Amino acid sequence: MGSRRSPFDPVAHGLDKDFQLTNYTFTDPRGVGWKVPQKDLLKLLDEFKDDGGKSAEEMMLQRTEFGIGSDCSVKPLPHGGLCLVETTDFFYPLVDDPYVMGQIACANVLSDIYAMGVLECDNMLMLLGVPQRFSDKEREIIIPLMMRGFRDMANMAGTKVRGGQTVLNPWCTIGGTATSVCPGTSIVCPDNALVGDVLVLTKPLGTQIAITARQWLSIPEKKKKLNALITAEDVERAYQEAVYNMCKLNKISASLMATYNAHGATDITGFGILGHAENLAKCQKEEVSFAIHNLPVIARMQHIAKGYSEFKLLQGYSPETSGGLLIAFPREQAASYCKEMDRLGASAWIIGIVEKGNRTARVIDKPRVIEVNTNIT
Amino acid sequence: MGSRRSPFDPVAHGLDKDFQLTNYTFTDPRGVGWKVPQKDLLKLLDEFKDDGGKSAEEMMLQRTEFGIGSDCSVKPLPHGGLCLVETTDFFYPLVDDPYVMGQIACANVLSDIYAMGVLECDNMLMLLGVPQRFSDKEREIIIPLMMRGFRDMANMAGTKVRGGQTVLNPWCTIGGTATSVCPGTSIVCPDNALVGDVLVLTKPLGTQIAITARQWLSIPEKKKKLNALITAEDVERAYQEAVYNMCKLNKISASLMATYNAHGATDITGFGILGHAENLAKCQKEEVSFAIHNLPVIARMQHIAKGYSEFKLLQGYSPETSGGLLIAFPREQAASYCKEMDRLGASAWIIGIVEKGNRTARVIDKPRVIEVNTNIT
Domain limits of chain A? Predict the structure, then answer.
């Protein structure tokens, strides 16, 4: 699983020792403040939903398209059964290493197409907001590192960044678009979950808690309470595990979805496991609901969550960045999928079931927490 | 050509009378401060250019892709001669009417694919930055208006917004992506200009000067000097003409490019007519240069430009938003194109020539200014 990443050293790059990329964003220590609340977003998008006479399938796609499901847009093309699958996303810095931030942003953008079972991305565009307050030197050093991280991750995914847009902004932003032209038959529709299906998750939860905890280690008034719950070494381990996962493409997880007859999937990001499970439930064709029993969590992050009520980890609402895929499989195939993932050195946990219901999702009372220990040394 | 738009009335929408969308961006009165300087941008993009062994054609596309030509990315697909053509762009508010701002943003995003002669856009995604400082009410009123403007313009262009991303940001941003899957043969390559060709422009220059002048009318210390150069009525006319043009799709201009054998084109935006002409010249296959003799300018904007040295209008560097297409045609066809555009009620001016040279562009000393009077009443 590789070894620890050393922290980004601004001095080694000729920058001031106090330079921190994460200063160029919200100061909300939990890093969740930049998402437009989900209910407001849905209200804003409401008027797009009944945009002329659409077929039920188009309505489903429309729902999928607007972040309620997977945030991918799917448009059938008038060329031999091909579809245009696209997504866009952008982010504020959550780690101080600009190269790693670029990698995370790219992996997260691609995650949306992987959630549709689409493995080949034909093109990426990069969106960059360069902080106004950056000195010339900071701009010359930091921005190319972010761009390189983004580009290298795109190349790793077998695609290429061919364009984009760069503007000045008060905060730093990085993101982009991922586009695929693929046979419609290769898309895993998200809305086919059936009663009796099993829910699988492919990355542990708790990424944002790990990142926040590590930031708190350098804030004396935060550090004291934190250290009563967890050691600095455990925080560092959790942080390394979080970064490892955020940089990991969901491509392998996605590549086995069709093989094991996946009935639908979404990727876990800013609304937390339950927020995204709710969105996926909402778009189902059958009258089903999702019940989540198990929460795979980066080791010891549950202790932090228990000490700070603002992290709604056990309620399912702790935001993730570049999280795993949540996939509904027929029961037997779920087990085979997890076994195959394990064989490939990738992770996957059975976390819940699909039951009869009215398209909602819940985390059961007292879910079982699966502590995910890191192998990073 | 239609009638005047009334100014946006915040009170009629239940907002404070002092609400101004243009307050949620840079305070630089010329509105040009948010572009990363072109030379810095090129330096940043440098490392993307020699990204592995590319064919000459790919190199051309790569150059085109990174804003040096048209900011469109073009990727040949492994499906029957199809290409994926994509662009992305986003903007800060430059007019106070949120619906109009949405329209302008959408027209400007689409402009890049029109510059490649691509007329059908298969899909658009919308990118929104909602100002943190917006009250709930402001968010509920302003954002849907912007979204509606963007969507309506997309529909007018015969395409549809199927997804996007919305986050909070200090400033307001609106933009998006435009994607087309089209036969490679339908693309007008930008790099075929020949000695003897003629340069055509399809919208008048001076949009940002008009917008800025109108803002100055409400700033007493600015107004006095301005009024010595131009009447308030002329400013209002110019503003109306600017808004009309920024909201106008370049689709008709693009639809005739292939018919009249265009040798290359780009759209005019933030770097001004000369900045974009330089980019287009740089990517040419032949050893040619562009000489611009005529500058079609919104009526009386040249008087403002002469009074304020910061507007580099006559030097060719006054930034435009959602500007026209700059197209190189064989001489006879250029005249026919302009005639046909005129017949369709659209505008087009012959502004310069293609001569032997080393892929540069210039505005001649003392260019002729063509005063473009508005028909808006």
Answer: 11-186, 198-372
